[in-house]
Predict the structure.
Amino acid sequence: MTPSIDMTVHPIVEGFFDEATNTISYIVRDPGSDACAVVDSVMDIDYAAGRITHDHADALIARVRELGCRLEWIIETHVHADHLSAAPYIQGALGGRIGIGAGIVAVQETFGKVFNEGTEFQRDGSQFDRLFEDGDTYEIGTMTAVALHTPGHTPACMTHVVGDAAFVGDTLFMPDGGSARADFPGGDAGQLYDSIQRILALPGEMRLFMCHDYGPGGRDIAWETTVAEERAHNIHVAGRTRAEFVEMRQARDATLKVPSLIIPSLQVNMRAGEVPTDQHGNPMMKVPVNGL
Ligand SMILES: [Fe+2]
């Protein structure tokens, strides 16, 4: 058990669902001060039109202002492959520091090659304000948050625990959704199982907040559950051995299509949410033909 976890601290968590990408962004508030954090923001893109807008991020910004909160952190649970981060846009409006797992350097190395980036693309994570190692802590007002390395979906995945709330990224889905794919470069189904077990070893009453929900079986979109619920009912994990999970995960991943926004998402998110530019400084992205 990590000593920084204090179940008597109850952050106020608000989820903001993005219908275009099934992503949930969060505002996490300290009940003891005016401090807050944003987790996994979304920047809107019409990929066919090459058009980027900020309606989802503007809603987060408006809410933080309405609450009169001070934004201290803009957290990315990992390098998302299915939506673009709005971290720098939000930082420009509200301040705060952008943080991600230290495994980002592995992701930058891999996709720096895929997108044939030049030397101006730094592969040292320096686009971010803070790189979290496993067990690193940081403050949101009077609350202490701890970042736990939970790789498997990607090498940079971290679960952020703040009091009795944990933001699991794509490590887990709601109990009836199971788990996220583990077939991206640097992903590993066995590692994902181990990371999930680490989350399930947290206190049973810990609130868990998902990064995605797809409403399986037509149920309403949901994003909050508990460790106890996941332990008992997660359809990919409950009652499965590590070997059984790996077999299931790999078989399932072999049937999944490439996420529709992976090409713009990676180019933006490996830059902490900055849109790349061409040699003239104009925002521009690439499509690596047969490169993924
Ligand atoms: Fe993801």
